Amino acid sequence: MHSLITCALPSHASRCANAFNAGRLTCYLVLFVWVASPDVTSGQPSLSSPNVLILIADDLGIGDVGCFGNTTIRTPAIDRLCREGVALTHHLAAAALCTPSRAALMTARYPQRYGMVGAASGGPPVLVHVASRAGLPSSEPTIGKAFAAAGYRTHFTGKWHLGSGCGFLGRSCQGPLAHGFNSTFYLPNTLFERANVEGSFWVWPEEDFHYHALVGTSAAVLAVAVLLKRLKFNVAAAVVVTSLLVAAPAAWFLLTHYRFHTPRWYQVSEWMDFNLNFVVMRQTSVLHQRAPLESLSMDMVRATVDFMRAEAASGRSFLAVHAFSHPHTPLVCAPHNRGRSRHGRYGDAVEELDEGVGLLLAALDDMALYNNTIVYFTSDHGGHLEALGADGQRTGGYNGLFKGGKFQGGMEGGIRVPGVLRYPGVVRDGSKLSSPTSLLDVLPTLLELSGLPSVRELLPDAAQPLDGLSLSSLLTGAGGATEDPTRGRLLLHHSGMFVDAIRYNTGEHVYVASNDVHVSRRARVRRK
Ligand SMILES: *[C@@H]1O[C@H](CO)[C@@H](O)[C@H](O)[C@H]1NC(C)=O
Ligand SMILES: *[C@@H]1O[C@H](CO)[C@@H](O)[C@H](O)[C@H]1NC(C)=O
Ligand SMILES: *[C@@H]1O[C@H](CO)[C@@H](O)[C@H](O)[C@H]1NC(C)=O
362-377 pLDDT, tens per residue? Predict the structure, then answer.
C-alpha cells in the first residue's frame, strides 16, 4: 500500500533539497554563533537512567494554556506539569510552521541546514503528501537515534510530518523507524481540514478552461477519426478512436485529482487527500487508511501507554515521543469532549489534548515512574490566528500578549511556545525560567539531564554542528546566574530560508531585532 502511494503522488524532493544549496543561505550561515553543548562527564547508560517522555502539541498557542495565563480554558494536566516542573516562559520554536519546527526539535539543528523548509521557488514549506520523497536526511542526528545509541528503547506516537515516502519499489523508506525509533503508531503526515471532507470523485468544474480545452481537443480528434473513416482508412480511424477513449479519461483524471495545472502544483484533490493522505501507520503497515478522528486522541494515548508499560515491566529505560494531533484542524473530538469547553471546537480540542496529557502522567504515576521520568511538554509553534471553520467559528489558537502567529515568520506570536520540563528531585519544581530557550535545546538538554554522553559522542557519524545547547545547569540550579549558557547566544528566526529576526541575550537583557514585514518594512529593535 505504502509504496503504491509513493508512485501515485508527486513529490517535491529535489526542490526541498535545493533549498539548502541556494547561495543566499551561506551568507547568513556564517553568522551563526555556535555554542557547543558542554561535555557530559558521566558516560555509561545505566539501569538508573531516567525515562524520557516528550509531549508535542500541534498548533497550540502559548495563550491557550492555564499555567501560561489562560483563565477560561481547562488544562489541569499541563498545569500540574508546571507545578511539578519548570515553566520555560521564553521558549521558542525554530519556525512558525510544523515541518521545520519539528525537524529542529528532533535534530537540535536549524532546518535550513538540511532543506526542511520548502523552496524559494514556491514549493510547499511543509510536506504535503504521505509519499513526498522529501524528508529528514538520514545523516541528521535525531532524538530517537541518540537515545537508541545510549541503549534506550524508543517509541514514536502521533504526527511525524518529517517525511515518510519510500524509494523505488518501497526501498529505503523514511519515517520514525529510519530515525532511531524502535516502535511507532503514527500519522506520517499531518491532519488538516480535509481529513474530515470526503470530496467527490466525479467532478466537472465548468468554470475551468482546461476542461473546455479537453472537450474541444476530444471533438477535434473525433472529427479526424470520422474523416479517416470516410477516406476508408478504417484501421487508422479505429486506432484514433481507441486512443481517444483512453486519453480523454486519463486527462480528466489528471486535471481533476492532481493540481499540476495550477500554481499549487504540489496539491491533490479533496478526494485524493481524504483517501490517501490521512493514514495511520504501525511500524511499516497501514493500520487505518483514514485516521479515525473521533478516537484518535485516545488511540494515541493507548499506544504510548502500552509501550511504556511493556518497557517498565522489562526494567529498560525508554524514550517515548508523543506528538498530539490536537489542537490542529479538523478539531474532531470524542463524543464526551464535544461542546464542553467555553471556546467552541478549538477549546474542546485543547481540553481533549490535556486529557491525553493527564492520562499519560497518570500512567507514569501508576507504574511508579513519577520520580524516574523526565517529562517535557511543548507546542510546535504559535496558534493560527486567522483559522476559521466553514461555520465561521475560530479554529486557531491564542498567543497571549504576542503579536502574530503560525505562518508569520519571526513574529513573536508565531514562535513563542509553552514549554515545561519536569524531573522530580532534579529540576526545581514550580519554578519559572525566563532565559530565551529554544526547541533546538531539547536534545542536548535531555541527554545531559539523563546523565548520557553528548550527541557527538553517541552519534559520531552524524552531521555537524548542533545549534542547540544544554540547559541542564539552568534547570537544576547548578551554577549561578553567571553561568547561564544562553548568555551571549544569538538565536536566528527564519521565514522559510530567510532570517526574519535575531535574538541576543546579554545576560541582563534580551534584544530582538526583527524585520517585521507584516506590520512595517522598517527593521526595528525592541527591548524586552
Ligand atoms: C483562552 O484560550 C481561548 C482559546 O484560544 C481564547 O479564545 C481566550 O481568549 C483565552 N483566554 C484568556 C483569558 O487568555
Ligand atoms: C532500536 O532501534 C535502534 C536504532 O534503530 C537499534 O540500534 C536497536 O537495535 C533497536 N533495539 C531494539 C531492541 O529493537
Ligand atoms: C519521589 O522521590 C521522593 C524523594 O525521594 C519521595 O519522597 C517521593 O515519595 C517519591 N514519589 C513517588 C511518587 O515515588
Answer: 999 999 999 999 999 9
